[in-house]
């Protein structure tokens, strides 16, 4: 993963945590729960249930169920390529926590440190993301003087590679049979699934 993508990911997480800190600092329980639900999956239930005016075991159980469901969504994403499953579970849990907090409440006055912690963590992550997105500003490497190159010994003549073995020729024939067919033909490729290592894009990558 490039530095730019790492920085982008840190910026997104920092924005989520900063928004969660701002929403949880309000006096509306629904906004508090929604913000904490955006901080991490199940946070709207778990943090409201554990840090509210009194311990809510139902909310804690629902937070654990959301965490398990999110883990299952991640597995489905990896197994089937369902890209939308994790964010949908995450967003639905935040909305559900907001609806639950309307009647059951969320953070108490003694939990004022949590919004400050979320906001500070979000700003720190966003700043780290900005630093990751900046290109390297180091000076270029110095070029040695030309006279130093004249004293180097001449490179030896490269030796010819050995002839291809029968197994190498068979692999080369296997690749050429698939590479030299018409562009709209994919004869000889496996079609087990379109998501995992048997997908056509991975077979083409390995062949290249």
From TrEMBL:
UniProt keyword annotations, A-Z: Membrane, Transmembrane, Transmembrane helix
Protein's name according to its UniProt entry: Uncharacterized protein
TM region(s), chain numbering: 35-52, 59-78, 84-102, 114-132
The organism's place on the tree of life at top rank: Bacteria
């Amino acid at each position: 993963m490039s530095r730019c993508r790492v920085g982008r990911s840190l910026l997104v997480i920092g924005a989520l945590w900063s928004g969660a800190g701002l929403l949880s600092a309000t006096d509306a329980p629904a906004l508090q729960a929604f913000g904490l639900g955006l901080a991490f999956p199940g946070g709207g239930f778990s943090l409201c249930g554990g840090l509210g005016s009194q311990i809510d075991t139902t909310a804690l159980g629902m937070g654990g169920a959301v965490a398990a469901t999110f883990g299952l969504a991640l597995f489905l994403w990896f197994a089937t390529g369902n890209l939308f499953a994790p964010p949908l579970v995450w967003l639905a849990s935040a909305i559900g926590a907001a609806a639950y907090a309307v009647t059951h409440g969320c953070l108490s006055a003694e939990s004022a440190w949590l919004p400050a912690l979320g906001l500070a963590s979000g700003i720190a992550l966003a700043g780290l993301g900005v630093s990751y997105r900046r290109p390297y500003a180091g000076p270029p490497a110095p070029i040695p003087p030309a006279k130093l190159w004249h004293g180097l010994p001449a490179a030896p003549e490269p030796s010819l590679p050995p002839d291809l073995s029968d197994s190498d020729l068979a692999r080369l024939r296997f690749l050429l049979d698939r590479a030299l067919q018409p562009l709209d033909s994919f004869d000889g490729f496996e079609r087990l699934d379109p998501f995992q290592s048997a997908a056509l894009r991975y077979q083409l990558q390995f062949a290249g």
